[in-house]
Every structure is written in C-alpha cells, then in structure tokens.
Specification:
The protein has about 150 residues and is an alpha+beta fold. It is built from six helices and five strands; from the N terminus they run ααααββββαβα. About 20% of the residues are buried.
Length: about 150
C-alpha cells in the first residue's frame, strides 16, 4: 500500500495537483478498501479515527478530487467509487468495463481494450458521444457462485 500511495502522490505532484492533509487522509482510507468504496463508509472510518464528526460534503469533495485524478472511478450504478486497477499501465484507456459482485461486493476491471475500441468506433459511426464510458455489469463473481 505504501508504494502505491507514493506513486499516487508523486503522480499528483508531477501534475501540480495539491494534496491537502485531508485528501491524504481520505486516500489512506481508500487504499484500505476492497471493492466498491462508499462515501459513508469512509466518513464512518474517519469519525472513528479522529473522534469527531466529519461533514459528508468534505469527504465527497475528496472522493471527487481522487476521481478527477483518475485514481478512482465513480460508478453511479452502485453509488460508489472503485480504485482504478490500471493506474500505471502505459496504454490503458479509461473506457472501462467494471464487474461488481452483488453478493460479496468484489470489483473486477478487466482489460477489454479491443472491445472498448470497437465500442468507441461504433459510437463514432452513428454520431453518438456517450456521457460516461463506464459499463457496469452486476452479477455474481466466480468465488460466490461456487
């Protein structure tokens, strides 16, 4: 986790993005999560750690910041965020496919670049510009179905 955090912070500083103490505390909690990251879970963890009330908009702004950097992906279909699994791949495109297990909450972000390119081409051919390039499929993962 420390290596990933250092990479994220370094990437942000290279892009001249300001990392406040609050953003860093939220990042620390994000990196402890598996699967879908819910704002209210982050708020509850912060309140436990800091022994004080945390205003929800404060955490939402931090999550939005991390989403704007590409560290997180907002997944409206599950009302949460996921950590990008392809942060440091050179040729990763952010037209992503996300599989969310509705039983255990695990998240998989398979690399279907060929399919993403075909989808982009199909949209272009019909003159369609999607608002969001995230396709979320919910179902049961291989661990829960067995």
């Amino acid at each position: 986790m420390d290596a990933l955090k250092k990479q994220i912070i370094s990437r942000c500083r290279t892009k001249k993005m300001k990392i406040t103490a609050l953003r860093e505390r939220v990042l620390n909690l994000i990196l402890t999560e598996n699967g879908v990251i819910k704002a209210y879970k982050i708020i509850a963890k912060m309140q436990d750690l800091e022994q004080r009330n945390i205003a929800p908009p404060t955490v939402y702004r931090c999550l939005d910041f991390w989403a704007a950097t590409g560290i997180l992906h907002r997944i409206d279909a599950v009302n949460g965020f996921i950590l990008c699994r392809h942060l440091y791949e050179e040729h990763h495109q952010h037209a992503l496919f996300v599989f969310v297990c509705r039983q255990c909450g695990s998240v998989d972000e398979p690399d279907f670049c060929d399919l993403a390119h075909r989808l982009d081409k199909a949209c272009s051919q019909v003159g369609f510009s999607p608002d969001d390039s995230t396709i979320v499929l919910t179902g049961i993962c291989r661990h829960c179905c067995c």
